[in-house]
Design brief:
The structure holds two protein chains of two kinds. Chain A has one domain. Chain A contains eight helices and one strand, in the order αααβααααα. Chain A has helices spanning 15-33, 38-59, 71-95, 102-131, 136-140, 144-160, 164-180, 184-212, and one strand spanning 99-100. In chain A, α4 packs antiparallel against α6 (144-160). By secondary structure, chain B is α+β, with helices and mostly antiparallel strands. In chain B, 46% of the residues lie in helices and 16% in strands. Chain B has helices at 12-22, 32-39, 43-55, 78-95, 114-118; strands at 29-31, 59-66, 69-76. In chain B, strands 1-3-2 form a three-stranded antiparallel sheet. In chain B, β2 (59-66) and β3 (69-76) form a beta hairpin. The longest helix of chain B is centred in the C-terminal third of the chain and has 18 residues, at 78-95. Classes of the chains: A mainly alpha, B alpha+beta. Chains A and B meet through α1, β1 and α4 of A and α1, β1, α2 and α4 of B. β1 of chain A pairs antiparallel with β1 of chain B, so a sheet runs across the interface.
Chain lengths: 218, 119
């Protein structure tokens, strides 16, 4: 339907319809262009809870603490992380179809840098910490060190890029990781699971609220 | 002061075009084909509406060539962004306390309903 037919300024298209259409079009466009959707962030909350909760379940009975995580917990973690990466790549790719410009290039740079931060955090820092398992620091930060690095790096880069919500989320991740360090070797996994779940749920709620914000209503 | 609605934007198709482009960060552009997909418009109709917006300098179009394929990118100018802001403000002033979620007899024409707004 050509909705311009028979529509003259001020006639046939009343302000209330215009306000509703403006909000509908704006919200639909925001949902389309948002690279980190509320659903994806909610999934990440579940991933954090299941992955770190699984780690906690497999280490909580260890006396003395060895840090060995059971095979099923690792399998579940790997499966969920792979799904998360694939879903994230799909969502980001879909949001960026046909979009170009400075903000898009900045977002691509952010994605690349954060991918590197995750690789550095887990591929380098985690085995490094494991190598010094007898060291008191390892007793204090068994699970949280990689996330502390990733969270702080993410917060610094997001602040430099002026991504305020991402900077706050990254800082919350770093704060959760730091707090987890005081939960003891086994308890830190549980604190990370619950803490990150809350952080991601908060980010999901914030994103959903921002997407629904009206252009017309105050 | 009585709020006036910009007649160029106060047309359903053009309002949707401007609102869609305004959801992108300042300076970013959207391809013609993606915009067309998102709005469900025919190429001819979209071209006509874009031309009107371009004449008012609310949008700008740039053509890029990648091999044999030509791509048209559409950007909302700062003037267009300001016009949309003024338009939204004018709507707010006009509507005052009116609940825009309340169903209107003509809502079906524009496929807008309170349920859909909330979904």
């Amino acid at each position: 339907m050509d909705d311009t037919v028979g529509t003259t300024p001020g006639g046939g298209f009343d302000p209330r319809q215009a306000a509703a259409l403006l909000d509908q079009a704006t919200q639909q466009a925001r949902r389309t262009f948002t690279p980190l959707t509320p659903l994806l962030l909610t999934f990440r909350a579940v991933v954090a809870l299941v992955v770190f909760g699984g780690c906690w379940l497999s280490v909580r009975g260890q006396h003395p603490y060895t840090g060995d995580i059971s095979g099923w917990a690792i399998a579940v973690a790997v499966g969920l992380v792979v799904i998360n990466i694939a879903w994230t790549a799909w969502v980001i790719g879909r949001a960026g179809i046909g979009v170009s410009g400075p903000a898009q290039r900045k977002w691509q740079a952010w994605t690349g840098i954060m991918a590197m931060a995750w690789i550095i955090g887990y591929a380098i820092a985690a085995p490094g910490w494991h190598a010094v398992a007898g060291h008191p620091a390892w007793e204090l930060y068994p699970a949280s060190a990689p996330l502390l690095i990733i969270g702080l790096a993410g917060a610094a880069i997001a602040a430099a890029f002026r991504y305020r919500p991402l900077a706050i989320t990254s800082l919350a991740i770093a704060a959760t990781a730091a707090a987890a360090g005081f939960g003891g070797p086994a308890g830190s996994w549980l604190i990370l699971g619950i803490g990150l779940c809350v952080v991601f749920l908060g980010a999901a709620a914030f994103t959903a609220r921002r997407q629904r914000r009206s252009m017309v209503r105050p | 002061m009585t709020a006036e609605l910009d007649p160029l934007i106060h047309v359903p198709t053009r309002l949707r075009i401007v609102a869609t482009l305004a959801a992108l960060p300042d300076g970013d552009a959207l391809s013609f084909t993606r915009l067309q997909d998102m709005l469900g418009l025919t190429p001819g109709n979209l071209i006509i509406q874009l031309r009107k917006l371009e004449e008012a300098e609310y949008i700008s179009r740039t053509k890029t060539r990648n091999g044999s394929a030509q791509k048209t990118m559409v950007t909302l100018t700062s003037q267009g962004r300001a016009a949309l802001r003024d338009y939204a403000r004018a709507l707010r002033d006009l509507l005052g306390g009116v609940d825009i979620d309340a169903p209107s007899p003509d809502d079906t024409v524009y496929e807008v309903s309170a349920d859909r707004m909330r979904s």
